[in-house]
Design goal:
The chain has eight helices and no strands. By secondary structure, it is mainly alpha-helical. The chain has two domains: 51 residues; 156 residues.
Length: 221
């Protein structure tokens, strides 16, 4: 496990969302997962999509643990809204010259609209998909979750982020000291990549796993 962390620091975010902490010693991935009762196949599938950016993950949808995956996704939502987005908003506030009141108000409005749209999307996921997964897994019953539009919603969110970046990059008033703004925009790009990975995990792991669970439950009826 420690060798994997050193080689791929992005694993630190994944570990945090799975409830794994540092101080792994010489544990293998399997030993670290078993200690925290995390499904190893699911953990490795998330790592593969995040680090290798490969859509050909090595486990079948039937081997994905919906319990472990939804816990990961819920923790990711908390990270974005409790830490990442508020931090970027504050950096934008610090970087924008408030003497240009019109641009200042426009920039924050676009950013707040983007975050609010994300909030509505993630709340929908948690209330209509994740909660049903949790309640239905105990009965091994069909989930009937409305997952068909997830990919389309993810595309709309990406378009909104592009609007924000274009406004800043093209129209931000010149400033002698651009360091604060450049750092804020850098964080925007980094956060966009993080959220894109999050969406890919939902599209390429969560959705197939839910459909596989539906098929499995129907066969048992």
């Amino acid at each position: 496990m420690w060798e994997l962390i050193v080689a791929h620091p992005a694993l630190l975010l994944i570990m945090n969302r799975f409830g794994l902490s540092l101080g792994v010693g010489d544990k293998t991935v399997r030993e670290a997962c078993e200690e925290k009762q995390i499904d190893e196949n699911t953990f490795l599938a998330v790592i593969n999509l995040t680090i290798n950016e490969s859509e050909e993950y090595t486990v079948s949808p039937e081997e994905i643990s919906l319990k472990s995956l939804t816990a990961y996704l819920m923790n990711a939502h908390a990270y974005f809204f409790n830490f990442r987005y508020p931090s970027i908003r504050q950096k934008l506030i610090d970087a924008i010259d408030r003497s240009d009141a019109q641009f200042y108000a426009l920039m924050l409005r676009y950013y707040d609209e983007y975050v609010n749209e994300l909030k509505l999307h993630t709340e929908f996921e948690e209330k209509t998909i994740f909660s049903r997964i949790d309640s239905n897994l105990k009965e091994e019953a069909p989930l009937h979750t409305p997952i068909s539009n997830l990919h389309r919603w993810h595309e709309q969110i990406a378009m909104k982020m592009n609007e924000i970046k274009n406004i800043i990059i093209k129209y931000f008033p010149p400033n002698e000291d651009s360091s604060a703004l450049n750092l804020a925009v850098y964080d925007l790009f980094a956060c966009e990549e993080e959220f894109n990975n999050h969406c890919r995990i939902e599209d390429l792991l969560l959705t197939p796993a839910i459909l596989a669970n539906e098929i499995k439950a129907k066969k048992k009826r």
